Amino acid sequence: MQEYSSQAAYDRxxxxxxxxxxxxxLIAVKNLRENGFEVDCYERDTVLGGxxxxxxQHSALYPNTHLVTSRSQTEIPDFPMPDDWPDYPSAxxxxxxxxxxxKHFGLSEHIWYGSEISHLEPVDGAxxxxxxxxxxxxxxxxxxxxxxxxxTGHHWAPNLxxxxxxxxxxxxxxxxxxxxxxxxxxxxxxxxxxxxxxGVDIACEAAxxxxxxxxxxxxxxWHLPKYLGGEPADYALARLASRPKFLRRFLxxxxxxxxxxxxxxxxxxxxGNGPGDEEPVRNGRYLEHVxxxxxxxxxxxxGFDGFDVAFxxxxxxxxxxxxxxTGYQPKIACVAPELLGxxxxxxxxxxxARMFSPKAQxxxxxxxxxxxxxVLPIVHWQTHAIARWLQIRKSxxxxxxxxxxxxxxxxxxxxxxxxxxxxRLVVDAEEYLASLGRIIDTLEQEPAK
Amino acid sequence: xxxxxxxxxxxxxxxxxxxxxxxxxxxxxxxxxEIKDNPETNPVLCCTGDPVGAAAFNALWLKRIAASxxxxxxxxxxxxxxxxxxxxxxxxxxxxxxxxxxxxxRQTVLMGHGEGVAWAALAAGRxxxxxxxxxxxxxVPKQFPKPVGEPPVLLVVSESETQSKEVQAVAEAYGITPxxxxxxxxxVFKGAAAEALLGTVLSWLDAQQR
Lengths: 449, 210
Known about the structure:
The complex is a heterodimer of chains A (449) and B (210).
Chain A: E1 10-11, E2 16-19, H1 23-34, E3 39-42, H2 71-74, H3 91-104, E4 111-112, E5 115-123, E6 127-134, E7 141-145, E8 147-150, E9 172-175, H4 176-179, E10 189-193, H5 197-209, E11 212-216, E12 223-224, E13 227-228, E14 231-232, H6 233-240, H7 245-265, E15 281-282, H8 286-291, E16 296-298, E17 301-305, E18 308-311, E19 316-317, E20 321-324, E21 363-365, H9 375-395, H10 397-413, H11 429-444
Helix pairs in contact in A: 1-9, 9-10, 9-11, 10-11
Chain B: H1 3-10, E1 21-25, E2 44-48, H2 61-67, E3 72-76, H3 90-101, E4 109-113, H4 116-124, E5 131-135, E6 153-158, H5 165-174, E7 179-181, H6 191-209
Parallel strand pairs in B: 2-3, 2-4, 4-5, 5-6, 6-7
Antiparallel strand pairs in B: 1-3
Helix pairs in contact in B: 3-4
């Protein structure tokens, strides 16, 4: 390690290192502190809030971003959002919420801003040495921690597709995260590529602001409105989960019949068994814009040529602005993929119970799931479990052993690997929460005498 | 709060939102140069079963708490004082207390008096209070939730109440022995008994802070 200062690593004892001060990182810091750990949280940007903060240079926000899951299903379980907020708060409110969370629990004093973790590796047994690279050029520092929690999220490395001729295209091409200001759409002929939540939201913005909007979508998805049966859709569907299984199927189908028929009328297939299968699109306005013609749906883009864009069906259009709402690639840069169960060829992490490293006992990842419901509560319970595990790992070897067996069992239960890279992070919220509950019970129950 | 309890709550309708009356007294409001806001201390949020709600604490409590360098607040739950009435039982009132707690700038101590003991205790099962102070409990729930984040719990009762059923239930639920103050249970908000009671509570809070 010649490139780093020759000084020995500074030993932080049993303190825990949290990487990232976005929503997941903040929740991790709070839950670790609550369980009595010293915490250092490193944030490469100069602000907290991660993707929710427009001042963050990696922010994924696009114009008029709102939550797609409702307030009651998205708020952190032990720190509710104000109940006079709307059912679907905006990105600005979300940032306000996270800021007040950090302030309420005094988290800011544990965050080191402008500090990127460039590297981390296990040293003497279960401890970790991290290399902190400050943004402003001063020398890198090496520190040792008792444990590391990675909470870097998976919405910052844009997934940029390649099309023939895209590089020579004469119009403007922007990724959804570069759009920022809605006035860029005004009066333009806009082509939006990508049928996920961001693509659909941006198409709706373009439908009212732009001169014309064409939306290129490769495949069918479930389209849910934001309200079903007079209630926020995710809440209405989640409530059905408490019903007996046969009834749940029937009631869910009945509730989704309307949206399904509407989508089919607009020429959108609804794949698979239901919206729980993969992240559904949650936007009530989109299908109406398709219905009144302000959004024109097209198939896959075949290629770009000068000013023109050709579609796979042979038609051509001439857009001024192309928005690539093609999502993000999950990427964890600071740690060797092997430590998270990947291989150099297939670096995607394969974690125990979607959070624990299979190689190191004291390395965990928070928030690397796409549960199709609000992710903050899931991260809360994940970090709660991680904090408890770090606590009992030393103090109670017996329970630690039963925990390991439990986590192994939970992971093999969900061994169905999604081959499709797009769906690698998808979990069934119902099953995953139940599995988290069992893990927490194992960690907290009184040991059998 | 256990995961299952949260799942159950997230899938039941939220109580109707109300505009809550919250009385706040900060150390700076005392205009006393000797008293400084100490950011190391946790704020205190009070609620009581008394129908006047937050106003009950105006006479003495909020000022005394602020004089100890703490941010002091009191909330009127639905139907009390300046807060409009709305549907909902103890759970909805606990919701009001939690909603008030998240507006306090720092992690707060929850203080319940009378019927407010039940609401503060239920709220502490959903919000990681920095401490839980229960004064002269009345009409307590059958079961107390396990407080989130394992805060220290204090039970203070008047001498005449020590044998009451409610006090026994609370003491048993949290595994604590009640402290007593001299005076009648009605003297909580004013007078010498109230001063003594507050002295007990504040010195206990200071001891928790280390």
